[in-house]
Amino acid sequence: MATEESLQEIYTRFSWKKTVFILVSLFLLFLLVLISVTLGTASIGIKEAFAGILSNLFPSSFQVSETTIAIIWKLRLPRICMAIAAGTGLAVAGVTMQNILRNPLASPYTLGIASGAGFGAALAIVTGAGVVGVNSISLSDNYLIIVNSFFFAMLPALAVLGLTKYKEATHGTLVLAGVAMMYLFSSGLSLLQYFGGEEEVHAIVHWLFGSLAKSNWFNTGIVTLITLISIIPLMIWSWDFNALSAGDEVAEGLGVNVERIRIGGMMISSLITASAVCFLGTIGFIGLVAPHITRIVIGTDHRFLIPSSALVGSIILLASDSVARTILSPLVLPVGIITSLLGVPLFLYLIVSRRRNYW
Prior knowledge:
Layout (H helix, E strand, L loop, with lengths): L1 H37 L7 H10 L10 H35 L12 H16 L10 H26 L6 H25 L2 H12 L7 H20 L1 H8 L2 H6 L4 H23 L5 H13 L3 H25 L8 H19 L6
Helix pairs in contact: 1-13, 2-3, 3-8, 3-11, 3-12, 3-13, 4-5, 4-6, 4-7, 4-11, 5-6, 5-11, 8-11, 12-13, 12-14, 13-14
GO molecular function: transmembrane transporter activity
Subcellular location: Cell membrane
Family: Belongs to the binding-protein-dependent transport system permease family. FecCD subfamily.
């Protein structure tokens, strides 16, 4: 009886720790949203920003200038919501990829998704979009790049899926096939840059940096919708992911269809990543670092790990974008540069400082 009580106490303590972590993360995200709304070339205080957000919902109760409302609702809030949606998606995709590939270094780009998206965008810029400069991309050209990028981002995942039909979909097979796709599209991207003109190469490089500058309510809504819909099956499979963490043999013994879960997780992760990458460009380290931070704090139970990683990913990306908009103001740096600069030392710190084998 004493042993049962102690186990119950341990389980309750760990459950409470996970709940507290999620609540603290939600509070930090809310606070970061308020701070981020105030940042920019136009000075807006926190009270004014809060009133500006509510004035569009309750115009009779909050009086704010039209300029402030336009800045908040047309420029800053779409960017903030895109950072939350993309950070959530990349982190969730990272959790899934690390589990199904059984590799702590796996990320949403392991299967060549980023390389495929970069190749698609470069192909549109050099041969199809008629781009003559980053600041002169027309609306139709911009969406041609987005569609092209999304299509080629999904292509490596489909190619890997096709290869698994000829060989069992083990984590080793997926990793090797993904590496092959990555090098294939990276070579194609380099070839396009070699033959492209100076302004076209500049546009390609700028796209590859990763930026939230072109965020609006339309593309934010697309990324948010795809991310939310994709998270549903991943949460349903959370018990299967837990079993898969113990090894393929254990999972199969518990009745898990390992190949179906692995292929399904791979396709959903690819879809989430492609939806974010096609609008924003390459944003690294979110899908790699956020799951590790969360796993260290709350463990490997995917029922809590998936939503917690989503919160951490959105916090990291939103914080990185806030730094990108202020560190050299009025110049706005691409957020992909900031995530890499912050991600490398943070990831090294996690490796050096960990005291237990959380993986």
